[in-house]
Amino acid sequence: MTENIVTSDNFEEYLISHPFLGKPENLYNSMNYIMQLGGKRMRPKLLLLAHQCMAGTLTKDVYQLALAIETLHNFSLVHDDIIDNAPIRRGKKTVHEEWNLPTAILAGDNLLIKCYDLILKTSLPQKEELLNEFTTMAMQVCEGQQMDMNLPGKEHITEEEYLHMIRLKTAVLPACALKMGALAAGASLDKSDHFYDFGLNLGMAFQLQDDFLDCFGTAAETGKQEGGDILENKRTLLFLHAQQHLEGSDREELNRWYGERVLDQSAKINRVRELFVKAGSDRYLLNLKHEFEEHALENLEQACGQSEFKQHVLMLFDFLKARKV
Amino acid sequence: MTENIVTSDNFEEYLISHPFLGKPENLYNSMNYIMQLGGKRMRPKLLLLAHQCMAGTLTKDVYQLALAIETLHNFSLVHDDIIDNAPIRRGKKTVHEEWNLPTAILAGDNLLIKCYDLILKTSLPQKEELLNEFTTMAMQVCEGQQMDMNLPGKEHITEEEYLHMIRLKTAVLPACALKMGALAAGASLDKSDHFYDFGLNLGMAFQLQDDFLDCFGTAAETGKQEGGDILENKRTLLFLHAQQHLEGSDREELNRWYGERVLDQSAKINRVRELFVKAGSDRYLLNLKHEFEEHALENLEQACGQSEFKQHVLMLFDFLKARKV
């Protein structure tokens, strides 16, 4: 890598050429396995783009920061897959399936520590600020994950609680990535906070799109089980809104579908979808998503102004908006 | 807390008065639960003593460092208890038993992040150096734990491998604690390294004493199941040495006890103990432990010289040497 890199396309190449080295082998193999399973690499790309917006160039140190952000994301994937008892991730076995539970716990732990190692080994003058931002975000991700786990045990969930949970679990990570990229470029705190807000609103829109696709997308579009959240009786925003806005027998029916063991799964999915539509929950969610996107665009304008890199960010943005997967 | 603190006895008080605050409640309750289960608090005390040796006083920041070290220790306890499937810790339920596996994973994760938060929130000029030392140590602890897990699957284990494993899993943590205390007091790298070596040798002696007590201690002395390592067929240093030094039928008998399902557990413990003694493995281990202690004393001399605080360290040292538990 040289200091002349000016696109973010080669992050994947950087990642592949910088595996974690150490012993014992099975620990480091499991860490590199999850890192190299692929994915959109959205979070590190956002970090690199924010840096380019503010500084025009990229450096080895910024790639290392981007790798730290991707590593934090992978740490959370490894531990979340244990928590969710998930056998498959991106078409391959999850770490605890390919190795075992103890190794998956330790792989996650060591990935988390490696994030700090990566940031500490940069020679950026903003290192301490970056570490503070990173630490706050990492705590929030854990808190969000625990809040998500607590939801099924709660009698009543407000929409606000649900949105707060996805903000912590999902949105603060891209937000922090963008802010770190800007800070590392020497941006002011004000500017960097616009990047943060952009990422937060983008992340919220992203998660709402996820929820929408999970409910209304086809298996052919998403590559996932159709109506997975409905079958799991997950009280997503769609459900919370519908429960609030349906009346009488419709509301009772919705609660019945979520309360009883159902044999005809596709009947359940179809009928719950109809009830969501009747309550206007699909439009409500899409409107809310649209609002987050509008806010994100305002934030981007404040953050990037007329920078040529704004176009790259917008392309990523449009890609995320249009995605079905 | 004021800056006039000059003993390390009030660390427990400091810990109790500085619980981790945050939401959701069950996540933070589980973190504070393990932190407040008690224990000897040996690692933070060593950090405070090293600081006193070099600076004569203690500050709020140094207590915060000590809390970070104790927090790292507790992070590893929470995750190790999951890995070992342990139901009880210090006479109380382990975190995954009192809450559940997901909460225990997240509690450990968040404790690890809190360590960094605590160090970052000090205003020590050596902050970056401290973070580097801490990070290296934390990685080693994970590596050591994985190495320990890998041992049962290995056909052949050398004594060197076993000692390397306990060095990483157990000894680098007190070593790092002492070094951090010295560094925070403004000690030179040379001086700080003497503290590190003291902690490393102390930690090795400590772990060998643990292994000895597990084998030869009585349940009344240790409060634990007698001969636990033997019953689990753990290839500790005693076993590795005995296997190497017994001959003919004795060696075959030892391997038989470790290879077969045994109904008469106390017969197994007694006979394996006799074989260890016949091989001279008990004396070998105690000699090795003594060597580590001698090295530790030399290191302490180089580190502390004639400081009055050396006496405090020596008291802790004697306490650890004499302990049965």
Question: What do these coordinates show?
Answer:
The structure is a homodimer of 325-residue chains. Chain A has 325 residues and is an all-alpha fold. Chain A has 2 domains: 1-183, Farnesyl Diphosphate Synthase (Orthogonal Bundle), CATH 1.10.600.10; 188-325, Farnesyl Diphosphate Synthase, CATH 1.10.600. Chain A is 73% helix and 1% strand. Chain A has 16 helices and 2 strands. In chain A, strands 1-2 form a two-stranded antiparallel ribbon. In chain A, a hairpin with a 2-residue loop joins strand 1 and strand 2. In chain A, helix 2 packs across helix 6. The longest helix of chain A is centred in the middle third of the chain and has 28 residues, at 189-216. Chain A is globular. The relative contact order of chain A is 0.10. Residues 1-6 of chain A have low confidence and may be disordered. The interface between A and B is large, with 37 and 37 residues.
In short:
2 copies of one chain form a homodimer. Chain A folds into 2 domains: 1-183, Farnesyl Diphosphate Synthase; 188-325, Farnesyl Diphosphate Synthase.
SSE arrangement:
2 copies of one chain form a homodimer.
Chain A: H1 11-16, H2 25-35, H3 42-55, H4 60-83, E1 88-89, E2 92-93, H5 95-98, H6 101-120, H7 127-150, H8 159-184, H9 189-216, H10 219-222, H11 228-231, H12 237-245, H13 248-259, H14 265-278, H15 281-304, H16 309-322
Antiparallel strand pairs in A: 1-2
Helix pairs in contact in A: 2-6, 3-4, 3-8, 3-16, 4-6, 4-7, 4-8, 7-8, 8-9, 9-15, 12-14, 12-15
| Spatial separation of the terminal alpha carbons of chain A | 32 Å
Q: At the fourth CATH level, what is the homologous superfamily of the largest domain in chain A? A: Farnesyl Diphosphate Synthase
Secondary structural class of chain A? mainly alpha
User: What's the multimeric state?
Assistant: homodimer
Largest interface: A-B, 37 and 37 residues
